[in-house]
Amino acid sequence: MGNRELLCVQLVKYFRKQQSSSFGFTLLELLIIVVILGILGALAIPSLLGRVAYSRETEAVMTLGSINRIQIAHRYEYGKFAVIGEITPDGINKPSMLELPIKPKYYIYRDIPRPRTDHLRAKYGAVAIDEYTDSLRNYSAGIRYLPSLNDFASVICRGNDHTEDNIENIRPRKPASDNKKWICTGNSTTLR
User: Fold this and answer.
1) CA–CA separation, 172 and 125 (whole Å)
2) Quick one: 60 exposed, middle or buried, by C-beta within 10 A (0-12, 13-18, 19+)?
3) 91: alpha, beta or left, given left = phi > 0 and alpha = psi -120 to 50?
4) CA-to-CA distance for 127 and 18, rounded, in angstroms?
5) Exposed (0-12), middle (13-18) or buried (19+): which is 142, by Cβ within 10 Å?
6) Element housing 94 (H / E)
């Protein structure tokens, strides 16, 4: 054999050896990776969904805080608090005395009728729209004028679970012992 033929034989042996020891993953290794990824996904998805619901609930807290501030301005200008009516993602269903620059996406905002809105107080709430009632909690808020202090007291209440559908059950009220602040009633938590 000549040098040329010897070189060809050696090259063929080299390439066959490379093919037989090719790199890759076995089926067992791939299966273990899929199981690990499934476990990590099962741990991460509930936390992620909770964060999504929390960010959607932020709409209600921010909007109710804005309504409280707009109510103060309305009270200074007109001497009484305003009725907010009913504001939905589709627009305003019931007339509002306020010009509210809000475009709700996840909640319907409406007045709480007991007691009625007047020159001393106003109460309203945020009810999750039907599509989100299973994952979002409802909120209520209120603002009071304190004539003796010439000041305002406001509060935002959060229902403690998404099954509290009636915002009148989580409405704010004035405690008998303190004239300066409101507390939240029912199955709710005071936010501010």
Assistant:
1) 10
2) buried
3) left
4) 67
5) buried
6) strand 91-94
CA distance 77 to 82: 11
- The string of pLDDT tens digits covering residues 125-174 is 888 888 887 788 889 888 888 888 888 888 898 888 766 666 766 777 77
Burial zone of 129 (CB within 10 Å; 0-12 exposed, 13-18 middle, 19+ buried): middle
Average pLDDT for the chain: 81
Instruction: For residues 19 and 124, give the distance between their C-alpha atoms in angstroms, rounded to a whole number.
Output: 74
**So where are the chain's domains?**
48-190
- Whole-prediction pTM value? 0.71
Where residue 22 falls among pLDDT bands split at 50, 70, 90?
low
The 10 Å Cβ neighbour count of residue 188 is: 24
